[in-house]
């Protein structure tokens, strides 16, 4: 069947891959052939190989609530929503609300980009504060949400989460409803909507950070039940080929350092923000400062990576508006590094809790 009457299918595909992701959901309505085409992995691989894919950064971001001088010491918890930022166009937008959550997404949920989908896992109900094990999947090709299979095991909070960007999301650690730190771990196949338990980590790890790179799921830092708030220095690494935790690095972080700003690029280079600096991991065991963080984002820092760039958000003070910068490396032999401030509309200036990136 011809994709476009009168044109060879190869030429027709060259036309279709130029459709921006915002219009993906309208393409299937044209005809069955277009619906099949845009749903195929070959179509999106061709977009990527042709340099036509688009990067989307997804941020769980609070409503920007003005701080009143008469509000008192404690302010109401703001509602968080899933906002998107397109680095190439500078466009900000908001995803549709998760079904059943008209008052904002679950607090402290985790999210991961998998293929052309966004997976949101767990969190606390923003109204009742009940812990949830629910899974929601947003498909960018149809612009719709679907309910996934619940995360198994005990109801857990503040767990590590990362994806292989292809079809699997990994979770590990966190704590149960009795505040007991956990060592259990699971893998979620998004295509088959199926959870599989993987072997436990060697240690309990509450408030740990998950990173996936080089076929391995890294679980960084965290702390045990009896060491509340005293973060570990170590990292455990799950090898997806051997289905084993293959390494426990005892000096990956400094004792007491929260790992939430640790990120990795597509090439596997790890970065973190600490003590007002951007640092890079050298030779797997030494962190080296490469730049200072701008002063107006040093409070409430959050970092998302895509390609060889970092999107860093934060404020100049507690309760202040969120500012956004891109940290990137220049081209050429010098490989100079520089910050570029991102124009951020007021509606997207709230605190960022979590985030991830996808290539569409």
UniProtKB/TrEMBL annotation:
GO biological process, one term: regulation of phenylpropanoid metabolic process
Superkingdom of the organism of origin: Eukaryota
Pfam families in alphabetical order: Kelch_KLHDC2_KLHL20_DRC7 (PF24681)
PANTHER family, A to Z: OS02G0208700 PROTEIN
Listed name of the protein: F-box/kelch-repeat protein
């Amino acid at each position: 069947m011809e994709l476009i009457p009168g044109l060879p299918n190869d030429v027709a595909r060259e036309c279709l891959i130029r459709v921006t992701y915002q219009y993906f959901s309208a393409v299937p309505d044209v005809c069955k052939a277009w619906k099949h085409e845009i749903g195929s992995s070959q179509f999106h691989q061709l977009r990527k190989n042709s340099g036509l894919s688009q990067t989307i950064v997804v941020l769980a971001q609070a409503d920007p609530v003005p701080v009143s001088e008469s509000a008192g010491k404690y302010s109401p918890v703001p509602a968080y929503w899933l906002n998107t930022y397109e680095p190439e166009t500078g466009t900000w937008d908001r995803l549709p609300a998760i079904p059943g959550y008209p008052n904002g997404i679950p607090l402290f949920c985790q999210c991961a980009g998998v293929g052309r989908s966004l997976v949101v896992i767990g969190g606390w109900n923003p109204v009742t504060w009940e812990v949830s094990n629910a899974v929601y999947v947003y498909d960018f090709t149809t612009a719709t949400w679907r309910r996934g299979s619940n995360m198994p095991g005990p109801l857990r909070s503040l767990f590590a989460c990362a994806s292989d960007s292809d079809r699997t999301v990994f979770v590990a650690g966190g704590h149960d409803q009795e505040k007991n730190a956990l060592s259990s771990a699971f893998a979620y196949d998004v295509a088959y909507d199926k959870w599989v338990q993987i072997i436990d980590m060697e240690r309990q790890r509450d408030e740990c950070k998950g990173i996936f790179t080089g076929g391995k799921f890294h679980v960084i830092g965290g702390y045990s039940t009896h060491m509340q708030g005293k973060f570990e220095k170590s990292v455990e690494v799950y090898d997806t080929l051997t289905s084993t935790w293959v390494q426990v690095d005892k000096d990956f972080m400094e004792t007491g350092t929260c790992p939430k700003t640790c990120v990795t690029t597509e090439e596997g280079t790890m970065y973190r923000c600490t003590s007002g600096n951007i640092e890079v991991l050298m030779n797997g065991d030494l962190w080296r400062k490469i730049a200072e963080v701008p002063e107006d984002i040093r409070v409430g820092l959050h970092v998302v990576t895509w390609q060889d760039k970092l999107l860093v958000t934060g404020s100049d003070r507690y309760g202040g508006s969120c500012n956004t910068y891109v940290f990137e490396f220049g081209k050429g032999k010098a490989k100079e590094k520089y910050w570029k401030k991102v124009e951020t509309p007021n509606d997207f200036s709230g605190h960022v809790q979590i985030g991830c990136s996808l290539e569409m």
